[in-house]
Amino acid sequence: MLELRPNCECCDKDLPPDSRDAVMCSFECTFCRNCAETKLGGKCPNCGGELLMRPVRPPAMLEKYPASIARVLKPEGCAAT
User: Fold this and answer.
1) pLDDT of residue 80
2) Which CATH number fits domain 1-58: 1.10.4100, 3.30.40, 3.40.50, 2.30.30?
3) Are 42 and 36 within 8 A, CB to CB?
4) Of 75, 8, 1, 5, which Cα lies nearest the Cα of 44?
5) Contact of 22 with 30, CB cutoff 8 Å
6) Is pLDDT above 60 for 76?
7) Interatomic CA distance for residues 48 and 18, integer angstroms
């Protein structure tokens, strides 16, 4: 089950569970599309993996399996790997 993290690890932008602006790697590191494209070149700075659009969980399933509320942030910002 994906965590659906609530923010971009680089800039701390809010990324609600239904956001079409969220991208993630296979380890669920989560970023906004702007940081992914302009700062990271489409690669996760943590693992080097590809960043792809995060799926949106259907509302009924979101009620049963809520998104994470734990924010992950790199205080120093992000740099490409």
Assistant:
1) 56
2) 3.30.40
3) yes
4) 8
5) yes
6) yes
7) 25
Fill in the amino acid letter for 24.
M
Model confidence pLDDT, tens digit, residues 38-66:
999 999 999 999 999 999 999 999 999 99
Nearest to 24 by CA among 41, 58, 1, 49: 49
| pLDDT score recorded for residue 36 | 97
Residue type at position 46: N
Strand locations in the chain (E): 22-24, 30-32, 52-53
Q: With H, G, I as helix, E, B as strand and everything else as coil, classify residue 59.
A: helix
Domain ranges of the chain: 1-58
**Sorting pLDDT into bands at 50, 70 and 90, what band is 21?**
very high
